[in-house]
Amino acid sequence: MDNFAKQRTLLIIFISVALIYIARLFYIQVVDDSYVFYAQNNVLQEQTIYPARGLIYDRDGELLVYNDAIYDLSVTPDQVKNLDTLSFCKVLNISKEEFLATFARLKRQKGYSPWKPIVFQRQITIPTYAAFQEKLFDFQGFFVEVRTDRKYKHSNAAHVMGYIGEVTDRDIEKSDGYYRMGDFIGISGVEKVYEKELGGIKGTRYVLVDSKNRTQGRYKNGEFDTAATAGQNIHLSINQKLQALGEDLLIGKIGSVVAIEPKTGEVLALVSSPTYDPNLLVGRERGNKYMELLKDPTKPLFNRPISAPYPPGSIFKIIMSLMGQQEKVLNPSTTYGCHHGYLFVGCHPHGSPLQLRGAIAISCNAYFCQVYRSVINNPKYKHVEDAYNEFYKHAYSFGMGHALGIDLYGEGQGVLKKSTYFDKIYGRYRWQALTTISMGIGQGELGITPLQMANATAAVANRGYYITPHIVKKINNHANPNPEYNTKHWTTVDTAYFPIVIEGMQDVVEHGTAYVARIPGIVVCGKTGTAQNPHGKDHSIFFAFAPKDNPKIAIAVVVENAGFGATWAAPIASLMMEQYLTGKHDTRKALLERMLKDNRKPLNDSTTTKAK
User: Is 86 helix (H, G, I), strand (E, B) or coil?
Assistant: First the structure.
């Protein structure tokens, strides 16, 4: 192609483009005068349509969390024209200084843009909203967005449900622009873990407003609008009545209750005490109330059931009974004597010698020190650390020493030391069973969260397996899709070794240390624990399951500085099991009245008692 041909082709292209532009301008300016109307008289305003957050129910369909409409005053800074600042401040009941400070703060926030809407004042009152609407034409660039905040039907289960709050700069960054300043997001509990399901999807509405800030209608009849998608409803595995009873029984105490349905891993109750009313973290005072709770010396925001490790005390003897049999150093007829203890480990007076079942019922410290020693000094292993590694493996298989994977943030791992820990302290091959003998009775280098205690109880109730504990049962009436919540995690102990131990646990309740935990007409299997506490009075611990056959509930109770396991933990567990299994908890009125009366009195932690 010669140069003349190239020049002619380029000229044709330029002329064609020019003609297209001229034709389009003619259409806009002469044929379709709506564009003139939009350009001269109206401003296009983008408004966010906030979705309704998903509702939260308990396992039986009782509504726990719902939504309440709130009004946020938003502004598009670039659209603010000829604002009567004094009139504006008067309507909002703020000073001019506050007005200027707010605008300055908004400009400093990450993601600020003068062309994008931003919340100027959150949750204005209904009277303020009405007054603002009357003078809307004076406040160009400002508009009201309707969204929802949470309301809690009951004042319990705060650590389970969690709460929502404003997004942070980090949240905005991670959302790739979805969230903007002033949006709400789940901060803790189920609200945080299931934010994607509960939060829904925002929509957008484009409206035209005139020079007096009056809405003139939808832009293009809503052609570019997107509808909001409501969040999905969630059913928790929590039983509301059981949860409420547990919290009531722990008023005035520091402690935890975790109840699990053994066959499914569904958490029936998760009580942390002290707790707080979740409605405190709702509304404009949310931030102030949070700081008050954060500064409270009793730490009501701390989720003890999943985070706080405690020495398990004598409840660990159940695990020792099982691993001793698995290691072939213990059988039901193995007999050990007790002379008020074993070396430096004391024991309470009781008949002696004992076989396994009787040792469980009586909770003999000397017996289980002997069992631990036989496990660690097992001659089939070349070195003590090899035997201890097997001990570690067995305990780990019951869910100890690691996070179980519950669908709540903040789960702790507990304390279960590896053999290398003792190697560093004493030197390799320079320690033995007697060095760590207190572990045989649940003391020493052991720390187990209440959740792990309840999970281990469920594993015993199931004769050898557990399913990962979880809080959410259904999402939009469909079973929780997480495959972990349908997977059996088998322990390293054969099912053949469980019956004798369960018989011993039945004896504990029927004529042993947990006699107070009996429930009329129901066979309960349990174990008390009194965990030594170097900082004061011992912790009262109890775990149990019921009924003995086809168990429906496994429970663990920890009450700090409360003394023997039978004093507080066992009665609390018994009343809660009765409530869940029979629908009532008042058949033993004297016990219930004592618990509800005495638990208003703070526990005295100035004395120390021996473990039992």
Answer: helix
Same fold? 45-235, 240-290+303-598:
no
Residue 90 CA to its chain's centroid (Å): 43
**In the structure encoding, which two tokens stand for residue 156, read together?**
């319990």
Burial 89-120 (b: 16+ CB within 10 A, else e): bebbeeeeeebeeeeeebeeeeeeeeeebbbb
Rounded to whole angstroms, the Cα distance separating 510 from 402 reads 33
Three-class DSSP labels, 110-121: CCCCCCCCEEEE
Using one digit for the tens of pLDDT, what is the confidence trace for 316-374? 999 999 999 999 999 999 999 888 878 788 888 888 899 999 999 999 999 999 999 99
The confidence score (pLDDT) of residue 608 equals: 31
CATH superfamily of 240-290+303-598: DD-peptidase/beta-lactamase superfamily (3.40.710.10)
Amino acid 131: pLDDT: 83
Report yes or no: 528 and 541 within 8 Å, Cβ to Cβ. Answer: yes
CATH number of 45-235: 3.90.1310.10
Between the alpha carbon of residue 120 and those of residues 80, 149, 197, 337, the distances in Å are: 12, 17, 28, 76
Break the chain into its structural domains and give their ranges.
3-32, 45-235, 240-290+303-598
What are 262-290's pLDDT values in tens digits? 999 999 999 999 999 999 998 878 888 99
| Closest by CA position to 570, among listed 583, 581, 556, 586 | 556
With contact defined as beta carbons under 8 Å apart, do 518 and 510 qualify? Answer: yes
Name the residue among 181, 246, 157, 174 with its Cα closest to residue 471: 157
For position 182, what pLDDT does the model report? 77
C-alpha 123/C-alpha 50 separation (Å) is 14
Structure tokens at 31: 């044929």
CA dist., res. 131 & res. 432, Å (int): 79
**Of the candidates 421, 401, 405, the residue with the CA atom closest to the CA atom of residue 413:** 401
The segments of the chain whose pLDDT lies below 50 read: 33, 36-41, 600, 603-612
**Location of structure tokens 């004076």:** 138
Tokens of 139: 């406040």
Cut 0.70: pTM above it? yes
- How many residues are recorded in the chain? 612
Question: What is the predicted pLDDT for the residue at 412?
Answer: 95
Question: And the tokens for 409?
Answer: 């943030």
**Residues in contact with 23: Cβ distance below 8 Å, sequence separation at least 6, in sequence order:** none
Which structure tokens are listed for 294? 């954060």
177-195 burial: b if 16+ Cβ within 10 Å, else e: eebbbbbbbbbbbbbbbbb
Crossing angle, helix 316-326 and helix 498-511, to 10 degrees?
150
Query: Pairing relation of β-strands 234-236 and 56-57?
Result: parallel
Question: What is the spatial distance between Cα 299 and Cα 61, in angstroms, rounded to a whole number?
Answer: 31
Report the alpha-carbon distance of residue 67 to residue 148 in Å, rounded: 6
DSSP letters for 499-517: HHHHHHHHHHHHHSTTGGG
Residues 6+ apart with CB under 8 A from 405: 411, 468, 469, 484
Written as six digits, the tokens of 410 are 């903040």
Find where tokens 């925001």 sit.
Answer: 301
Q: Which residues of 565-594 are buried (b: 16+ CB within 10 A; e: fewer)?
A: bbbbbbbbbbbbbbbbbeeebeebeebbee
* Closest to 440 measured CA to CA, from 476, 507, 395, 384: 395
Q: CA 215: distance to chain centroid?
A: 44
Q: Indicate if the alpha-carbon torsion angle 333, 338, 341, 343 is positive or negative.
A: negative
